[in-house]
Design goal:
It is built from 13 helices and 8 strands. It is of the alpha/beta class and about 350 residues long. A 6-stranded mixed β-sheet has the order 3-2-1-4-5-6. Strand 2 and strand 3 form a beta hairpin.
């Protein structure tokens, strides 16, 4: 039985579905809702074998969670690389879904890796932790804004420690400013409790992961960043080399070439922005480690602080690649008892040279 090819142009409340047969003939084109019951009812009756292509839009997690139990062949479309849709002058849902189905049928679809559901859930947990830190930063900036509006300078390095909070409580402020400061301090207390609970969960999961333990040995990388790298990358075996991983993260310099002329540019910034941010943060901490101090200072003198941090983040990503791969090899290797080799007078092996089974 010939395979069907389904293109889905996904939106929040509805999606347009186009079904083509193996010869490219249109079998069906219609709009359906994105409620779980409606999606299961429609795609559950699609004749198998069938392949489904959907763009990596804002709600593709939900769509894949509904589709995976139905036994369909799922393909996640890379939106930046699908130029046939992005550069189209005539663009509407019916045409977009038809183009996806055609590209899937002809084998020209630019695909993105579909992370397994446990990896997607781990990403959500770690990204929620990142957002919680960002909310705490906004609360602190709001308090700094109140102080600046009133021309007040804190005598302490940070106004958010025990002494700093006492300083904030004793300030004479206008009624609205007092409401804002007190409200943001209460928000910081709540966010601090949530961060503590998140960090406990992340540390517990990291202890059970050999890959996370291996990454934590890299200077600048702790349980949170190690877990974030693992969740955002997913499966390190997808990448044949460290350069491929660096390019995936978006830390590789861009390259422009025309004829005999070649010139480099800034980093591509493709891939996960959260992962790039985490590695740059790790680089700032690793810059003072003896292992990387010299490299960082040389890059800083030549290119400045920001580029030096990016260069060190690129180096950390390459080290993480090899550490992670080695951890997988160690975990997959079963302990073997080597049979001792009999030594003769003409043997080239000495007591101080280890036997190599290769």
């Amino acid at each position: 039985m010939k395979k069907l090819y389904v293109g889905v142009d996904l939106h929040k409340r509805s999606c347009w579905v186009t079904v083509l047969d193996a010869d490219g003939h249109l079998r069906e084109s219609r709009r359906i809702g994105t409620e779980k019951q409606e999606l299961e009812a429609y795609f559950g009756q699609v004749r198998k074998p069938a392949a489904v292509a959907v763009e990596a839009t804002f709600n593709w997690y939900y769509f894949l969670n509904v589709m995976e139990p139905l036994g369909l062949e799922l393909h996640l479309v890379h939106p930046w690389k699908t130029r046939a849709i992005a550069a189209a002058r005539i663009k509407h849902d019916r045409l977009d879904s038809r183009v996806l189905a055609e590209l899937l049928r002809t084998g020209f679809l630019a695909e993105a890796w579909i992370a397994p559901r446990p990896v997607r859930e781990e990403r959500q947990l770690l990204r929620y932790r990142v957002h919680t830190v960002q909310w705490a930063t906004r609360a602190k900036n709001s308090i700094h804004g109140v102080l600046n509006r009133n021309g007040i300078r804190s005598p302490l390095h940070s106004p958010f420690g025990p002494k700093g909070r006492q300083f904030l409580q004793e300030l004479e402020l206008a009624r609205t400013d007092r409401w804002e400061v007190d409200g943001q301090l209460e928000r910081l207390d709540l966010l601090g409790e949530q961060l503590a609970a998140l960090d406990r969960e992340i540390r517990q999961q990291a202890k059970a992961s050999p890959a996370a333990q291996a990454l934590e040995e890299i200077p600048g990388i702790g349980p949170f960043i190690a877990s974030l790298v693992i969740a955002e990358v997913g499966d390190i075996r997808r990448f044949p080399s460290a350069k491929h991983l660096v390019s995936y993260i978006g830390l590789a310099p861009s390259l422009h070439a025309s004829g005999e002329h070649r010139w480099g540019g800034p980093i591509t910034k493709q891939g996960s922005s959260v992962l790039r941010w985490a590695l740059v943060q790790a680089a700032h901490r690793a810059a003072f480690h003896p292992r990387f101090y010299g490299f960082y200072q040389r890059q800083r003198e030549r290119h400045g602080t920001s580029r030096a941090a990016v260069a060190l983040a690129r180096k950390l990503a390459a080290i993480a690649f090899y550490r992670w791969r080695h951890a997988l090899q160690v975990a997959a290797t079963l302990p073997q008892v080597e049979k001792p080799r009999e030594r003769t007078s003409s043997s080239a092996w000495s007591e101080h040279r280890p036997f190599n089974s290769d």
